[in-house]
Amino acid sequence: MLAVVLFGVLHIVSGAARYVANARNPAYPGKCYDTVTKSTVNKGATIYKGCEKWSCSNDYGLEVVGCGLAVAQQGCQIKSDSSKRYPDCCPKEVCPK
């Protein structure tokens, strides 16, 4: 049982997301505004920044989704490709064959 739990802990790849229900700002009409990064996204649009996907819904809900944490099991490595956009840029576990 311990081995199964340990394997589950060592083999983690999870995502990270945040949501702002009302991302309106009167200074930026027709856009969602993120107060944390001071970024804007047009209403109804999706953009990619870094290794994140930013979406602004028609009712001004702002969703930011990214890669989150990646942990490899013993003998494997975590590799990522920052030249690609989300989710292909996210860290992935690579194990020798």
Please trace the helix and strand order, writing H or E for each element. Answer: HEEEEEEEEEE
- Please state the structural category: mainly beta
Q: What is the CA-based Rg, rounded?
A: 18 Å
**Main sheet overview:** 4 strands, antiparallel
Q: List how many beta strands DSSP finds.
A: 10
Which outline best applies? elongated
Strand order of the largest sheet: 2-7-6-5
**Overall pLDDT score:** 87
**What percent of residues are in strands?**
35-45%
Low-confidence stretches are: 1-13
User: What is the helix tally?
Assistant: 1
- N- and C-termini, Cα separation: 26 Å
Helix fraction bin:
under 10%
Q: Could you say how many structural domains there are in total?
A: 1
Subcellular location: Secreted
InterPro entries: SVWC_dom (IPR029277), Vago-like (IPR053308)
Pfam family, one: SVWC
Domain Single: 32-95
Explain what you see.
By secondary structure, the chain is mainly beta. It has one domain. Helix content is 9%, strand content 38%. The protein has 1 helix and 10 strands, in the order αββββββββββ. The strands form 4 sheets. It has a 4-stranded antiparallel β-sheet, with no helix packed on it. A hairpin with a 2-residue loop joins β5 and β6 (52-56). The longest helix is centred in the N-terminal third of the chain and has 9 residues, at 2-10.
